Amino acid sequence: MMSHLINISRKIRNVHDLRQLHAQLVHHSLHHHNHWVALLLNHCTRLVAASNYASHIFESATYPNVYVFICIIKYYSQSQTQSEAVSLFKHMQYNDIKPDASLYPILIKCAGKACGVLFHSHVLKLGYVHDHYVRNAIMGMYAKYGPVHLARKLFDEMHDRNVADWNVIISGYWKWGNEEEASRIFHMMGESQRNVITWTTMVTGYAKSRNLKTARMYFDNMPQRSVVSWNAMLSGYAQSGEPQATIRLFNHMLNSGNEPDQTTWVTVISSCSSLADDDPSLVDLVLRKLEKVNFQSNYFVKTALLDLQAKRGNLEAARMIFDQLGVGKNSVTWNAMISAYARAGDLSVARDLFNKMPERNTVSWNSMISGYAQNGESLMAIKLFKEMISSKDSKPNEVTMVSVFSACGHLGALDLGNWTVSTLNENNIKLSISGYNSLIFMYSRCGSIEDATIIFQEMETRDLVSYNTLISGLAAHGHGMEGIKLMSKMKEDGIEPDRITYIGILTACSHAGLLEEGQKVFQSIKVPDVDHYACMIDMLGRAGKLEEAMKLIRSMPMEPHEGIYGSLLNAACIHKRVELGELAAAKLFKVEPHNSGNYVLLSNIYASAGRWKDVDKVWDTMRKQEVQKTTAWSWVEHKGEIHKFIVGDRSPKRSDDIYKLLANIKVKLRRAGYVVDKSCVRRDVEEEEKEEIVGVHSEKLAICFALLVSDIGSVIRVGKNLRICLDCHTSIKMISKLEGRQIIVRDNNRFHCFSDGLCSCNDYW
DNA sequence: GTAGGGTTAG
């Protein structure tokens, strides 16, 4: 019978075999015996079986001896539950079982700093400190948690070091960023003393400090390479954002007859994920290779593969991998699936998974919050962020804040933005450059270009995005000259402007009426993009130089796109040039027949020329083409809350109050000598009476005025594709004078700052 | 039984 059981135990390949052996042992009442318990636990460790199964086996031992404890502690130290290992060790001490030296390296490795130091004192007392494995583990503990000089002290005191000791101290110095000392010790070693791990440690060290050239030099000079060495170099390229180089080295690896392992595939697949848009054929090639080798993928590989399928747009394939993972899914798998749906814009499915997942972490919240933020659901993003803070199961980090800042910026909600900034300190969040960049974006989109500038100035280092964000902000606020100055400062700092910078600068010039400066900048662009031409058409058009604009269009080396004709149509509208407007509109109706904005502009051109029949014709075409007119809306922030208003909609809670207030203002305005008509206001001056009043815009703005005068000062946000029309401008100017206050209105991406009856943006006028 | 490599969020 015994030999039968021993035979079974030799043939264990998977968890199923293990369970069968366990059943046999229970059948023969042998499962209490330490010998068999230890054997089963060793199999658990080898197979990475479920932790409750291992503890079940352990508990069946009646009087566990030191070997059984070693097995279970080893098991826990290799699975995710390392704190269990330490608590079992305490359990062992409680039962007066004397640990032997071989247990300490395992314990120290998984203990964390405080326990590690405690174990150090244990081994000193027990006299185990001269054991090679023990002292190596202690050194490794100090190398990992610091202070690294204690590791060095142990190292210096050794008179019979082996290669593992050298390797630990070198990797310790790399961990603490001490490249110099790591390299010094490497060179202290003799050529024959170094092994493949020593070399790999150097490759990893240089790769992690982004010194890929030196990393590659060590890699090329290695006497021999293991699969780990290849993986170290591959991940070096991958982590530095060089996916092409990763794939190139991977091909080199295969061609020189090396067998990739799970880690290799994870690295390569995740590099493919970032190439999914740029080079789909290369990605297909790698996927075919993976199919050909047909090997056992672990969860890491499957999760990476899930992410890749999602990023190349194959959500079904991604979902299949997710479902096939069954109960083996961890939070990373869930997060990958959630962000896949969120990226694709399928927010309800993403949210459903988010609600269902068993354990959420910071990445789960971030995936969902950024999903909302990037799909225009700014309010939902902020709502979920508030839930995250009160849930307390995970803390927000910089990535969370980037999404939240962006959401606040899109809303133009300054109070909310200031509140999110205050959560930074409460949660001890440090920002990196990209965090500060999103803060610049938020402040500038919330109308506070001053705060945006302060953040920019306070930054220790700035990158291209920092400059571009502030330049675009200045452009939107009409500060053209400051934008140009910032561009020269940028060049002084050694950062070359890119196409985004030039779009920002040209927009700034266009909005500030800086024609000459804008033209100079345009001429300095080496290879102008079609969008740069669009900015120039806009600039010339606003300045009334429509003939020059037409000339520029004809001289373009590329095919004009909708932005070009859009700018032309806009200019024709401002300067009431019917024939040019018709030309531009005809082009636009072909390219984007369902954009309602173009029809509205053309109809406005006809209206300003008194050609009412043509106005009707435009609206008829719109109806025939079934063009949906964008509903006019606006929102304002009041005490951290967002109030959205849709034209004609009287349902919001406060709408009765608002309309009452509106009526009051009308009275106030009439007394001050203004004409109030259909909820809009204008001065009763002859030349302005000719202006056609576009009711929709005026009404919703009027609602905002009501809020403004009811003691709320913040940015008014006007819906996308809508423009503030002339009468609105007049109204706001007048109210700013009447109320003696500053009013900021955001119209798509432009800001209009009104104070004392003047507007600082000379757009349209 | 010591040392080296890996998945998800902006």
What does the secondary structure layout of this molecule look like, with pairings?
Layout: H1 2-10, H2 15-27, H3 34-47, H4 51-59, H5 66-78, H6 82-94, H7 103-110, H8 113-126, H9 132-145, H10 148-157, H11 163-175, H12 179-188, H13 196-208, H14 212-221, H15 227-239, H16 243-255, H17 262-275, H18 280-293, H19 299-311, H20 315-324, H21 331-343, H22 347-356, H23 362-374, H24 378-391, H25 398-411, H26 414-426, H27 433-445, H28 449-458, H29 464-476, H30 480-492, H31 499-512, H32 515-524, H33 530-542, H34 546-555, H35 562-574, H36 578-591, H37 596-608, H38 612-624, E1 633-638, E2 641-646, H39 655-671, E3 674-677, E4 680-683, H40 686-689, H41 695-709, E5 715-718, H42 726-739, E6 743-747, E7 750-755, E8 758-759
Parallel strand pairs: 5-6
Antiparallel strand pairs: 1-2, 1-5, 3-4, 6-7, 7-8
The structure holds one DNA strand of 10 nucleotides.
PPR repeats: 65-99, 162-192, 195-225, 226-260, 330-364, 432-462, 463-497, 529-563
Protein name: Putative tetratricopeptide-like helical domain, DYW domain-containing protein
Family: Belongs to the PPR family. PCMP-H subfamily.
Structure description:
Residues 673-765 form the DYW domain. Helix content is 67%, strand content 5%. It is mainly alpha-helical and 765 residues long. The protein has a domain at 633-759. It has a 6-stranded mixed sheet with strand order 2-1-5-6-7-8, with helices on both faces. A two-stranded antiparallel ribbon has the order 3-4. Strand 3 (674-677) and strand 4 (680-683) form a beta hairpin. Helix 3 (34-47) packs parallel to helix 5. The longest helix is centred in the C-terminal third of the chain and has 17 residues, at 655-671. The radius of gyration is 34 Å and the shape is elongated. The structure holds one DNA strand of 10 nucleotides.
